[in-house]
Amino acid sequence: MIAGVSVEMGREAVVVKSDRPLHVLSSAVHGGGLAEARAVVNLHVGKDDPCRDPSGMIDAFARRAGVPGPWVGLLTGAPTERAALSEGVAADLRAMAVVTVGLSIATWTASTINTIVVVDADPEPAALVNLVMTATEVKGLALRAAGLVLEDGVAASGTSTDAVVVAATGRGVPARFGGPASPLGWVVARAVGASLTAAIRDWQERNR
Length: 208
Description:
By secondary structure, the chain is of the alpha/beta class. It has a single domain (about 5-205), classed as L-amino peptidase D-ALA esterase/amidase. The chain is about 25% helix and about 35% strand. It has 3 helices and 10 strands, in the order E-E-E-H-E-E-E-E-E-H-E-E-H. The strands form 2 sheets. Strands 1, 2, 3, 4, 5, 6, 7 and 9 form an 8-stranded mixed beta sheet that branches. It has a two-stranded parallel sheet with strand order 8-10. Strand 2 and strand 3 (about 35-45) form a beta hairpin. The N and C termini lie far apart (about 35 Å).
């Protein structure tokens, strides 16, 4: 979907690789914050795994799988082979989003939604923050549209362990903004919305 960027989805992990370093802002458990990375790893873990050493687990997988470093890493109990991948395109802007969704309405705090976004653009740091906000807002909209609610009947907007990664190639015209009204935010919202809708629907169909 984006030149020089590949996505691999399997039972062990979702791995996004880039030929060149990406500018990343994330809430990742490994390498979170602002970083430069060649890969993003969303590693599947057993639901009863205590995950006492997240960085060690992600590093061990990445080295075994030959993932190019440095990498940013996430953990999820959701089935990574069922990740949903979508793109958003407008003029010279392109975004892709890959999402894993694992939900348990009875134990909402044990659920996880991990969202990885890559934009073929050159956003300023503040725009990266905007894009994280945009992706999070779209997540809330997608959950409400799917009719997902908490035990007390309140509409769900996310889970307590969600993570989001926004990575940029640094190519193209610099972008000052990443909110949903901006061109870059719009393509990200399209990509994230499509991926989340597909992943949430897949989870609902498997858990009727």
